[in-house]
Amino acid sequence: MKTHFYTYQILSIFLFAGFLACTKEDPVLVEEQELITTVALTFSREGAPSETIRWTSDLDQSPLIGLKSNTQYTVSVSFLDESDPGAVENITNEVKKEADEHQIFYEFSGVAIEFEQAPSDVLDSYQNPLYVNTLWSTSNSGSGVVRVYLIHEPIQKTGSARSDFGGETDIAVDFTLQIEN
Amino acid sequence: MHIVRSFFVLFCILSSIQALNAQSCSYRIEGVVTDLHDGDPIFGAVVSIQGTDLFGQTDEEGYFLIKDICEGSILILVTHVECDTISRRVVVQSNTELKFELEHHINELQEIVLLENGITQVNASVQESRLNADQLTLLSNQSLAETLSSLPGVSSLKTGNAIAKPMIHGLYGSRVAIIANGMRLQDQEWGADHAPNIDLNGFESVQVVKGAAALKYGGDASGGMIVLSPQRIRLKDSLYGTSVLNGVDNGKGGSLSSRLTKSFDNGYYISGQIGAKQFGDRKAPDYFLTNTGLKETNFGLTLGRSKILKGWQLNYSLFQNETGILRSAHIGNIQDLLRAIEAEVPIRIDPFGYAIEAPKQQALHQGIQTSYFNHLTAQSLIRLDYNYQINSRKEFDVRRGNRSDRPAIDLTLQTHDFLGSIQWKKGFEWEFEAGMNAFLQDNYSNPETGVKRLVPDYLKYQLGSFITGNFQLTNVFRWEWGLRFDQVHMDVQKFYDTADWIDRRYRLLYSDYEQRDFGTQLLVNPKLNFSNFSAQTGISIGLEDNFKTTFSYILTQRAPNVSELFSDGLHHSLATIEYGNLSLKKETSHKILFGIQKEGNQFTFGFNPYLNAVENFIYILPTGVEQTTRGAFPVWSYEATRVFMWGWDAYATIQFVKRLDYTLNTAYTYAQDVSKDVPLIMVPPFNLYQQLKYSFSGDKMEIQLVHRMTASQNRFPNTNFEVNRIESGSIIQREIDISTPPKGYHTLDFYFSLPLKNQSSLNSTLRFIVQNLTNTTYNDYLNRLRYYASEMGRTFQLQLVLKY
Fold it and tell me: Lesser CB count within 10 Å: N end or C end of chain A?
C-alpha cells in the first residue's frame, strides 16, 4: 500500500515542477476590429466643389461645417478606421452590405434642417433608406449641432427621432453647424 | 484483545463506587450510536461514565439512555466488542443529547472515529450556516448563489437572472472562497458577471463560514468561505444513488441530474454524476426576457479507496454552460442607457425562443484532483491534495460584420494547486494542523478576438504555509487559532495604450516594466510581489440551557486581483469604461465576529453581529469621462479606500405545535467608505426570509410557504452622471440615475412534497413548487441589469426525486 502513496506524491510533484519549468511566450498585439476612428461627411451642392468635414477621435472639439441657407446639399457619410495609417479601412462598405442590421440617422439642434434619402441612397431588403446618402435642405441662417448616428440592430427602421429606432449606438458624434446667407 | 479490554472496562465500571455528592444528580444523557459509514445503528455498545457505576447499552435502534447524572465534568467511554474504547469529556449542566458515530469494520479497520455530526464544523468559533442534501435538492434548479441566498447574511450578486455570484456580508468575488472537495475553485472569480463554474447537484452539503476561518484554504477571503462536500462513501458493498428531475414552466425547460455510487467492502468505490439543464427565454410578469436562455451540462467521476486509516481518491469533473444575456442590456452608449432606464419595458422583446444569441457567455471548466490521506498513528494524519483546473471562458458581444460568432473575450485559465497538511493530537485537549499550499496560475487571453484584452496574460505563483490549532478542554470550552503566510508573485504581460501609460504617470513610476514599444501600444511586463499574513483566533463557550457563545477575530490580507490591477475595456451592459490600477497595494481586513445561539427541540435561535474594518479596500468608482466615437463614456477606475462595515445575521426556528415549524433568517449590513464619507456601493439591503412548514403525520407530506422581504437600500453613493440628448431640435442635459436603488419587495414561494409509495430499495418524492406565487414585478438592487428588465415572474416547477 505504501507504493500508492509514493506514486501519487511523486506524480503530483512531477506535474507541478513540470509546469513551473514552462515559460510564457510574449503576447501578440490585438488587431482591433470594428474600430471606427473617423466619421466623414461630404457635402456637395450645385455649382460648388464638394467639401469633406471629418470627425476624428483625437479632436478636442466638434469640427465646424459651414453651410448656406435655403440650399439643398447632397450629404454622404463614411466611417473609417484610421488607427493604422498604413492600412485605412473603410467601414462604410460593411455597413452598406449589412443594411438590414444598420441605420444611419441625423438629429439637429438649434437649426432647422430637413433631410431625406438621396436618389443614390442604399436601401435595405425592405426598401427602407439606410441614409448613407441624404439630401439636406437648409432654411434660415443660424448655428447649431448635427449629431450623426450609426445604429446597430435597430428594432425598427423608420422614425423621426433617435429613440424610435432602439438598437445600440455604434456612432454618435457631433458636428457644429454654421448656416450663413 | 478487544473483548478483554471491554471486560476490563466493564469491570472498572462495575467495581467503582462513587459516593453521590451534594450537587444535583438528576440529569439524563441520551443519544444514538451509529456506524460512521452507513449510518446503521450499532447494537450493544456500552456507554459509561468513568468513575461511576452509571452506564447505558444501545438497543437495536442504537439508542442509549443514562439517568441520574450529576452536574459537572464527566468522562464518557464508549465501548463495543468489535471496537477500541473511546473517551470524551463532557460538561453536564442540563439533560444532554449526544450522537456517536463509530466505525466497526473491525476486520480491516482498527480505529474508531467519533464525531458529533456527520459533517464537522469548519470552525467552531465562527458561526456557520448550512444547507443539507434535502434543501439542496429542493433548489437544485437554481445556481449556487441563489440557493445560498436563503441563508442569513448571504446574498447573490446577479447579472440578469442566470448569472449569480454568492455574496457574504456584502463582500463577493475574490473575497469569497469556494471550496469544493477540499480544494479551492479557481475560475474568473474577479469578474462581477462571472458566476462560479460549479453544479450543486454533485454535492451533499454546503457550509457557509462568514470569515476566512479555515486558513488552510486561504487567508484572503475576508468575506467568507463556501465549503461544498460530497456525499460520504459507505464502506460496505452497496450501490446507491439519487436522481432529480425538474420541469419548469417559466423558460419552458428543466434539468436532470443523477448520481450513482458503487462501494465495496474492501473500501474501493466509484462514483459518477451527470447533469443537464436547458431553459429558453425566461419571463418577467409582463414580458419575455429575450435571450435569457441557458444550456448546461456537467459530469463528474470519482474513483477511490477509503479504509478509514488511509485512503486515496481520483476525481475528474467537467462543467460546461452557455448563458444568454438579456438582449436589451447590450447597449452602445450612455444615451442608450438613458433610454433603457426611461423605458417601462425592455427595448427589445422577441417571442419566446430557445436560441442563445450574442450577448452570451460560454464557460468550460475541467478539473482533475488526486488526494491521499493516511493516519500515520492514532494521533496523526497526513493529507495531500493536488488539483489541476482548466477554465476557459468566452464572451460574445453583438458585433458588426458577422463577428458576433467570434468571442470578444476568450480566456484560458489554468491552475495547479497543491495542498499538503499534517494533523496531530496531543492528549485529549490539543489538536494541530500545519501545512503548505503551492499554487501556480496561468492566464492566456486569446488575441484572435479582435478586441482589446480585458485582462492580460499572466503567471501567478503563490506559496503559503499555515498552522492552526485548537484546544478543547471539555465540550463547553474550545479555543481555536491559526496563522498563515502567503507569498504571491505575479508576472504580467500587458499592452497599454502608450498615451494612457503616460497620462496615468506610469512612465514615471514604472518605466522598469516597459518591455517593447509598438508605437501607439506599449508592451509592459510588471512583476509584482505581495506578502500576506493572515491570522485567526476564537473561542466558543457553552452556557446553561444549551446556549453557546462564540467570539472570534480574523485578520486577512489579500493581494489585488488581476482585474483590479489591469482591467481595461468597455462594459456593454453598463456603458462604462473600466480601468485597473497598477499602483494598488494589498488589502488588509480586521473582522470581529460575535455569536450567541441556543439549540433546542422547540426553539433554536442565533444572533451574530460583526465588525469589519478594511484598510486599502479595493473598489471601483467613477473617475471621469472619456470621449469616444460612441459619444462620451463614464470611466470607472479601481482605487483603494478605508472601509468600515458592521452588521448582523439572525435566525430562529420555532416549533409552534407538533409538526408546524417556523424559520426566520434575517440580516443587515452597514458599509461606509470612511475616506470619502459615503456609503459603499452594492451592499445588500436589510432582508428577511420566513418559512412556515407543516409536515403531515402519516405519509410525511410536507407543505412549505416561504416569504422573502428585501428592503430598499437607502444607503448608496451617488454615481449619477449627465448626458446631453437632442430632443425636438435642442440639446437637453439629462441626469442618468444609475444610483438610486429600486424599491423594496416581497415575494412568496410555495413548496409541496409528496413521498410516493415505495419499495424498500427505492425512495421517491414528488414536489410541486411555485416561485413568485403572486407574480410580483420587482427589481433587485443587487442585479446589475436591473435598469433593463424586472426579475422573473411566477414560476411553476415539478420535481421528482428518486433515491435508490
Answer: C
